[in-house]
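thread: overnight batch results

M.L. [08:02]
morning all. the overnight job finished for the chain we discussed friday. pasting input first so we're all looking at the same thing
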Amino acid sequence: MNRRGLLRAGGPWPLLVLLVFAGCTLMIPGREAKVGARYHAVIEQTMGLVEDPDLTAYVRKIGDRLAAHSTRDVEYRFFVVNMQEPNAFALPGGYIYVSRGLLVLPNSEDELAGVIGHEIGHVQARHHLRSQMRSVPFIPLTVAGAIAGFAASLLSPELGQGIMSASTFPAAAVLSSHSRSAEREADEIGQQLAAQAGWDPLGLSRFLTTLAREERVRGGDPERRDFFASHPPSPERSAATRERAGSLERADTPPIAGTHAAFLGRLDGLLVGLSGAEGVFVDRQFLHPDLDFAVAFPAGWKASNSPQAVAARDPEKDAFVILQTAGKGVDPVQAARDFHASSGGRLLEGPTPLQVGGLNAARTLSQSSRGRTRVTVEATWIAHGGLVFVVAGMAVAERFGEERATMRAVADSFRPISAAERAQVTEERLRLRTAGAGEKFDQIRRDTGTTWTAQSLAVANGLDLDGQPAAGALLKIPVPQPYPPR
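M.L. [08:03]
and the structure it wrote out:
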């Protein structure tokens, strides 16, 4: 969660409304740009965009050169999305995204151009139109996510969107798992665009190989929101891209970053993993240095962080705790009253004044229903640093009683962050390092303090898992540093 995302007034339409809108209108190609713009607002609000002018300008230069060869008359737009997993996706109307997590992995401009070209290929081939966005079933939205999104929206529309993103992923609302034929077509178009724009069309094949290796090294996680989750690989895909690359004629156009070192230099300083500005988890503790608070989440609960909310869910997925700001203010009782005066939920108790972590607070209990689902919400409103925070414990009514004490403990743990905790907040940024003679990745790990394994370092640098870098090789290494940088 970050200050800018949490305090932004208003917000885009709720995700499900956009889905219905999209399913009804995307049959009309002329409406694609309008739908894409609305989805873009959701992604910008719930996920956030990387604010690095040099990096985003570089990605856009690559995208613009590729798009100049597209056969569709679309105004393509290119963004770096603030997502730590390696992914890329496209929206109707020409909105193309690569995640900062993806940018960690390529070792040449050819590879990055191949990925961006692949996403242009989805737009050029109208794959979103062909699937008609699959209407509402297009989202792999779990029942748990639906309950959480509904319950959170009782507190605020933005909070509802925040937990939607925490339990699923906004890009899931705009990308289905493409069919194998769609993936093959996007590969073909992307490689053609890369060759026409002067890049090696073999770059896409090399990057797909790196992604597959990275996924194996990281281990399987059904909730990991990476490229292959929405772009399913097939056994023949890498072979097909390699074979096709040999048949394509490459234009004699120089790359934007002229050398390998120049390309890696574009990535120097890239944030890897969690951002200190959005708060970090240290074991069960969530620490936010910018907003000056610490809070403890239950052991065994699945916790996640988005620009708008921090959330945790129980293993059975029908109870949630969600934390975000309710807005500026110093009176939590009045903030609770103001909210419930305009909400559709039924207020059962409160607001009751109390103290939490030495801070003025208030607590309410409410309930709302949608169809046969009844959700009970205990919200604790806490004034701190000129803001009112809300910690909401919510569960289906039948489970609320047994989960109430656990959820309330989260709210009661809210307190100002200590100096010792603040010192624990670090973040990793990609740095360039020249390999010494005989130096192995295990030694590099010890010297730099990176959290990455030797195997992850090898994959990210395009080397064999059991090999070692050549003396003088320029390497990408995620290096931890204090937050904020000193």
